[in-house]
Design goal:
alpha+beta, six-stranded mixed beta sheet, single chain, Aminopeptidase, 6 strands
Amino acid sequence: MSVQQLAGEWEVADTTLNIPHPYEDGMAEEWIESHGPGYEAKKLATFAVVLRDSEELIGAIGLRVNFSLNKGDLGYWIGKPYWNLGYATEAARSIIAFGFDDLGLNRIHACHFARNPSSGRVMEKIGMLREGTARQDTMKWGKYEDLVTYGMLREDWLEIQQSPRSL
């Protein structure tokens, strides 16, 4: 499936802050074309989430990086046919490792709409800690949304890696 088909589903767009609906022709290409310049500018690291065997696209995950503050903002989406199969957790675990081990970040945080607890479960499964809820912090489609924030520090990540029951 294509980015437009997967991200353009109403349920996917509804549960994310930055995905529009409808997802019009040309939007996917424009979004994809922004990845290279964002990576070269050391501001973005966006990756396709694909099935291991077929390399079929099922979503995307990335970090918006602020090296002056040594932190990253995690964001992801997974196409609806692939929800609740563990793909978001696996991808999130991988990008957290990339952020701490390869980019040398000190902190990674992520937010989700309070009405989307599945996203929070992904964050908890990878070891992020719930830091709080910002009430009516943002707006999606003309409606105020509460944002739940999770965070992880490099020291948390290192502790998880040393644990005999590593995530």
